[in-house]
Write a structure and sequence with these properties.
The structure is a single chain. The chain is an alpha/beta fold. It folds into two domains: 213 residues, NAD(P)-binding Rossmann-like Domain (Rossmann fold); 77 residues, TATA-Binding Protein (2-Layer Sandwich). The strands form two sheets. An eight-stranded mixed sheet has the order 3-2-1-4-5-6-7-8, with helices on both faces. Strand 7 and strand 8 form a beta hairpin. Helix 4 runs parallel beside helix 6 and helix 4 packs across helix 11.
Length: 347
């Protein structure tokens, strides 16, 4: 048996599915995907894609793993928490253990208007594993500008929704939802919780759409907004195809990329369900963690590895990343978080 045949043998049960076949599998192996976010949705997506044999997967996430993530973020375990691993790095390690023949690139960063085009420009598909509309509108802008397909998904409580977006062929996200509801007006994972099975259902819908698209079966793609509630056992399909060109969409209609050009969105954000604020302050050079640890030593224990530095001050927990980002736990007050950042990390 040739090396090539051996590499295909692991996908034999998938190849036997007639709509996919060997040709579709080879297309998957040639494909490149950028996965934006590797929390609840993202870990299910990453798991499916790695096992299906998507050849190159870039995993982007700004966050680190905590114990409460383990209820629904299926690639992580208690050892990852103990090792203070960022989600992207921990996910990449698990994906490589699942399938050593694919290329996995972890990127520990905050996805924003300064870096998104570089991170998605070589992808055949962009996948939504995020938890906020600000990042989704940014993805939508980048996808429409570059003409890249992307798949939206979101889950709160027991309910989730997903839609597949093909720029120029289908409505984009802002055709359907032009602007996000104001803060406090809709449920979040902090107020409504989130069930792991609901996440798994929506992420699996996203994954099968990815497999269809990457294997060359665009004719089989979903044309609707799919809404599922796993608690009430309801399934709805909202017909949205007629929105294309019929609404005054600021993105795909007027090609006004206000999230991509930085005129919309913030660089300091509260984090869902965390009583925490992320402060993004990009620096030209990575932070010197050993030197920073020495400077902060009078505060008490300072722990660091190649991926993050952690310490506590004034009743707040700080997690600092090499690019200058920090997650400050113990407050939802953005002004307070910025002040703490300036005081302990620096301006």
């Amino acid at each position: 048996m040739s090396v090539e045949s051996q590499s295909l043998d692991r996908y034999s049960r998938q190849i036997r599915f007639p709509q996919l076949g060997e040709e579709g599998q080879r297309a998957l192996l040639r494909s490149r995907v950028t996965l934006c976010g590797c929390g609840a949705l993202g870990t299910v997506l990453a798991n499916h894609l790695a096992r299906a044999g998507v050849g190159s997967i870039r995993v982007i996430d700004r966050d680190f793993i905590e114990t409460h993530n383990l209820q629904r973020q299926i690639l992580f375990d208690e050892r990852d928490v103990a090792e203070n691993l960022p989600k992207a790095e921990a996910a990449a390690r698990k994906m490589r253990a699942i399938n050593s023949s694919i290329a996995v690139e972890p990127v520990v960063t905050d996805l924003d208007h300064t870096n998104i085009l570089d991170l998605v420009s070589d992808a055949d598909l962009i996948l939504d594993g995020t938890d906020n509309f600000e990042t989704r509108y940014l993805i939508n802008d980048a996808a429409v500008k570059l003409g890249k397909p992307w798949i939206y998904g979101g889950v709160i409580g027991s309910e989730g929704q997903t839609m597949t977006i093909l720029p120029g062929e289908t409505p984009c996200l802002r055709c359907l939802i032009e602007s996000a509801p104001p803060p406090g007006m809709t449920p979040t994972c902090e107020t409504a919780g989130v069930l792991g099975p609901a996440v798994a259902v929506i992420a699996s819908f996203e994954a099968i759409e990815a497999i269809k698209l990457l294997s060359g079966h665009r004719e089989a793609l979903n044309q609707d907004l799919i809404m599922v509630d796993v608690w009430d056992w309801t399934f709805r399909q909202l017909k949205i195809a007629n929105l294309l060109g019929k609404v005054d969409c600021p993105c795909c209609g007027r090609r006004n990329f206000e999230w991509l050009d930085g005129s919309m969105g913030s660089h300091t954000t509260t984090l869902c369900g965390r009583n925490a604020v992320q402060v993004a302050a990009r620096r030209p050079e990575p932070l010197d963690f050993p030197e920073m640890a020495r400077r902060l030593a009078p505060l008490g224990e300072v722990r660091h590895n190649a991926f993050m530095l952690r310490f506590a001050a004034e009743g707040h927990e700080f997690t600092v990343f090499p690019d200058g980002r920090a997650i400050i736990k113990g407050t939802n007050d953005i002004s307070k978080a910025r002040s703490l950042y300036a005081q302990y990390v620096g301006s």
